[in-house]
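#struct-pred

JT: dropping the chains for the assembly here, can someone run the whole complex?
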Amino acid sequence: MNSKQTYYKRTFLSGSSVLVVALIALCHIGLAKADWQKAEQDIMGTRITVELYHQNDDEAQAAIAAVMNEMHRIDRSMSPYKPDSELSIVNREAADHPVKISTELFNLLQRSIDFSQLTNGAFDITFASAGFLYDYRAAIKPDEQSLSEAVKHINYRNIHLDGNAHTVSFAQPGVKIDLGGIAKGYAVDLGIALVQNRGVSSALVTAGGDTRVIGERWGRPWQIGIRDPRKADAIVAKIPLENVAVSTSGDYERFFEQDNTRYHHIINPATGDSARELQSTTVIGPDAITTDALSTSIFVLGVEKGLALINQLADIDAILVDSHGRLHYSSGLLRLTSE
Ligand code: AMP
Ligand code: MG
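RK: done, full complex below.
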């Protein structure tokens, strides 16, 4: 059994476009139903779900509250919409002078740059240099001239981190950063660590499209559905998962349509325009910061380059829905399905 099977269980594909899942349901004794707790809150501009098992109801509630508090804390420091967040201060000042930042933000910026290097620039938090010109709710997009001006500032190499002084500076005015493609996954990993430290060994933490699970649920793997990008209540695949993270990026999350073109929130750093080769990308891997950053990256890279990258990474798999609604699987999932 390879390592992937330990967290996917066995999956196989049917002839149709539906991923059919075969499971051996193991009955576990000792998980009293009343002791599972679930809570949902809207934080970080998204829906947070925490579900966990603890023998003690009060401990369970305290663990859930700790996760929600953590989400609020990350939102306060990393929201681009809060003028006093650490991120907003960096965006206002880092082109003028180096800005001293927390170890947490410093490390997350470093991780973001690592993902830019890994994905050949498909993941780039300076996408925001052009990204801030869009307002998807108000159906506003930049004119060609302002867009081509803003795109000049997109380049992760414009972010200078000084590990000794613990500062960040931008190479030029016009550079802006946004952590929307990685912060939710980061927050989910922190949430899982928090509940584990409180003695919880079966839990799910979700922030929007980013989920991480530990242990099992009712003695069975967790079932994570991948929604149909064009039908909100339909599912194109269902995956049984244990001790793993899964992130989905989709062009249906925040978008508007104009002249038969969909303008949505995942930006190709090369053009400043929305990436349109895919409708959704789902990445499965060991932790949510990785799956979050990679789901956004693969969305930009498209089917061929995206799968080529995923297939060279150990313990990472992906399911892509292309612009025609067709499903594509990474080689690890195809191997499992043919066994
Ligand atoms: P996700 O739903 O995880 O794919 O994240 C989408 C969010 O990532 C967007 O709302 C933006 O905040 C951010 N984003 C968009 N394009 C990029 C990109 N090319 N690189 C990094 N982050 C991006
Ligand atoms: Mg993502």
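JT: nice. Residues 123-125, 127, 178, 180-181, 209, 249, 253, 265-267, 269, 292, 295-296, 300 surround adenosine monophosphate (ligand 1) (CB under 6 Å). DSSP finds nine helices and 17 strands in the chain.
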